[in-house]
Structures are given as C-alpha cells and as structure tokens.
C-alpha cells in the first residue's frame, strides 16, 4: 500500500489492485484436426465426439435421427440419401466423422480462437506462413483445449495443447504471432515473443512489422 499526497495536508491511501485471474470453464478433447480446419494463424475449427461429451444430452433429436439414418444409408451405399442427411447434420453444427475403426461418430463443431496471441492476417506479410505452420503442427492431431471465454464473433477462446506442446508458445517462438496484450497479460507469452524478436525469427526479420490490430483498423477505414 502507498500514499498519494496532494499538497501538505491531503493524502490518499493507494491499495494495489490484483488482476482478475481467468479460470478454465471446461476442456474439449477433439477428434483429429483436418487441414481445412485451420482458418489462419490463430483460429481453428475442431470437432468433438459427442458420445463422451458433457453436452451429449443436448444434441437435438432430429440430428440424432439424421445421424442414425445416414449410417444406414452409407451401409446400403445410398450415397445420395447419405449426402442429403449430412447437410441436415452440418446445418445444425454437427458432423459425422469416421473414427480410427472407420466407424461414423457424431461430432460437434467448435470454432476456437487461440487465447493470448494475434497472428498476421492472411493478406499481411507472414500471414500465409503463420497459417501453414499452424496447419503443419495440428493436422491429424487430437487436441486438448482449455476454454476460458468466448469472443464477439462466437468463437471459444482457449489454450490449445497438441501432444504436450503449447500451440501459443510454438507460434510465438516461431515469430508468427504477437502477444495480444490488450486481452492477455501473461508474462510467459511476452517472454516467448521477445525470444523471437531477439533472434529475428519469422516476422521479426522485417524492419518494422505491422501489428495485426493496426492493420485491421486501417482495413475498416479503407486505408489498407
């Protein structure tokens, strides 16, 4: 605790305010990630098997029915019927995906925003490289995602673990993302970014790399 004094008589006590720590709301354990699921260097789409998911009881009845009928249609090689049923399932935010035994499992789709980092946009320098590196790291892998929040675009915001590797740490150390300090204050993320800066890795090889949030602001006002 400190004091702020105004003149000789008036002093105000100052108490340090601790930052509010975010807590994990729940975890997702995904099916293997498809290459098409990587939108850019900080956003992915994942699918979670509903048979062992806490929300399994919330699956709409029409989706359950369509999934059962689609499996029967595929077994009967009625692919036209199976494709029509798949459209119903996809429209509700689910998907039938083959597991390791080539059995169809009903999975729910989630859009994930990697917590605490901001990668270059697709049209920015290193935007393509960031997407390709994330795809290379995640393709075919199952992920553990700790969900903290959701953003204004409806994406879940979380820490992503890929076989024991922190995906945010990987992208920062590769010099393919910024620590998004406006929304995340973890010191380790700044440390990993600074390591890439010091070694001029990735986008830090550029003389003056533009921040993604500045680029997006320019794009909104039409100056990009």
Q: Topology, pairings included?
A:
Blueprint: E1 2-6, E2 10-14, E3 26-29, E4 38-40, E5 43-49, H1 61-75, H2 79-91, E6 94-98, E7 104-114, E8 117-118, H3 127-138, E9 144-150, E10 156-162, E11 165-166, H4 167-173, E12 178-179, H5 187-198, H6 212-220
Parallel strand pairs: 7-10
Antiparallel strand pairs: 1-2, 3-9, 4-5, 5-7, 6-7, 8-12, 9-10, 10-11
Query: Given the C-alpha coordinates, what overall shape results?
Result: elongated
**Strand proportion:** 25-35%
- The radius of gyration computed from the alpha-carbon positions, rounded to a whole number of angstroms, is 22 Å
| Helix fraction by DSSP (H/I, runs of at least 4) | 25-40%
The largest sheet, given as strand count, sense and whether it forms a barrel, is: 8 strands, mixed
Quickly give the structural class. alpha+beta
Tell me the number of helical segments per DSSP (H or I, 4 or more residues long).
6
End-to-end distance: 47 Å
Domain TNase-like: 29-206
Organism: Urochloa decumbens
Protein name: TNase-like domain-containing protein
Pfam families: SNase
């Amino acid at each position: 605790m400190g004091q702020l004094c105004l003149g000789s008589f008036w002093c105000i006590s100052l108490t340090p305010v601790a930052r509010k720590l975010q807590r994990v709301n729940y975890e997702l354990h995904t099916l293997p990630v498809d290459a098409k699921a990587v939108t850019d260097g900080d956003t992915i789409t994942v699918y979670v098997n509903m048979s062992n998911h806490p929300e399994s009881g919330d699956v709409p009845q029409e989706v359950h029915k369509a999934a059962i009928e689609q499996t029967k249609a595929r077994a009967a090689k009625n692919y036209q019927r199976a494709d029509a049923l798949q459209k119903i399932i996809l429209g509700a935010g689910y998907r039938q995906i083959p597991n390791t035994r080539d059995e169809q499992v009903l999975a729910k789709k989630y859009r994930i925003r990697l917590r605490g980092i901001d990668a270059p946009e697709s049209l920015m320098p290193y935007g393509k490289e960031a997407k390709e590196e994330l795809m290379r790291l995640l393709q075919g892998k199952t992920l553990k995602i700790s969900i903290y929040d959701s953003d204004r675009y409806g994406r879940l915001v979380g820490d992503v673990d890929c076989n024991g590797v922190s995906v945010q740490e990987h992208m920062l150390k590769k010099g393919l993302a910024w620590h998004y300090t406006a929304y995340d204050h973890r010191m380790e993320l700044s440390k990993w970014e600074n390591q890439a800066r010091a070694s001029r890795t990735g986008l830090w090889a550029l003389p003056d790399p533009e921040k993604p949030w500045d680029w997006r602001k320019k794009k909104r006002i039409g100056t990009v």
